[in-house]
Amino acid sequence: MSSQEYAFVVLALVGTVSAVRVVTARNVVRAALYLVATLASVGAVYLLLGSEFVGWVQILIYVGAIVILFLFGLMLTKAPIGREALDNRSRAIGALVGLAILAGLVFLIQNAFAWNDPKVELAQATSGAIGEAIFRHYVLPFEAVSFVLLAALIGAVVLSRKDERP
Amino acid sequence: MIRLPLVLFFSAALFSIGVYGVLARRNAVLVLMSIELMLNAVNVNLIGFSQLWRDLTGQVFALFVIAIAAAEVGIGLAIVILIYRNRETINLDEVSLLKW
Lengths: 166, 100
Prior knowledge:
- The structure holds two protein chains of two kinds.
- By secondary structure, chain A is an all-alpha fold.
- In chain A, helix 1 packs antiparallel against helix 2 and helix 2 runs antiparallel to helix 3.
- In chain A, about 75% of the residues lie in helices and about 0% in strands.
- Chain B is mainly α.
- In chain B, about 60% of the residues are buried.
- In chain B, helix 1 (about 5-25) packs antiparallel against helix 2 and helix 2 runs antiparallel to helix 3.
- Chains A and B meet through helix 1, helix 2, helix 3, helix 5 and strand 1 of A and strand 1, helix 1, helix 2 and helix 3 of B.
């Protein structure tokens, strides 16, 4: 194993363990903070794989904005504490389905790829190249996404505004 | 050099943890967090294959997925807060008005 692989395994373990804590924590604010750890380690994995632009976007948007939104949502809904209040009764079935999906995916992956054959080269994908790809080949999807974002913004404002009846 | 199956295993683990969270949690905000975990698993796959094939399409679509996730969280939390305002609870098994 190369040193990059050790670094990747450490980051992946941190991300996986804190993801497990996200779905098992009994305190919702702690779940949100473990989500920060997961998202940051996923961002670090992006940086390690050499895609720095997506890595920093991950840190900025997920850790910076989305988790803050989640914390606002938790604070505004007076989230309760405790396993009974946060989990439903089909926890065992959920664990079974999750493990079944994990087993199926692991089987498919080790079936499809030899362990040593495809290796990800860790060359940098520069931000300039990504910008060129977006604005040369994917302009139309980019505009569609920006429109979706605008519609979501307006929709969120309309939904959460209090009705003022005359 | 990182072996591709390591990246894919990490993504598979994140995805199945997210599936467990969606199925086992009853608080709507925690379900949204689990959905974020699944979207991140998809992004890890996109980035891994993009770096494997030296093709930037995967990274562009990872950015699109991040943007859609941000929109989804905004709308989702607005709906959750609206439900809380009307029904004083965001437990998903109690919000069953549309269930047959």
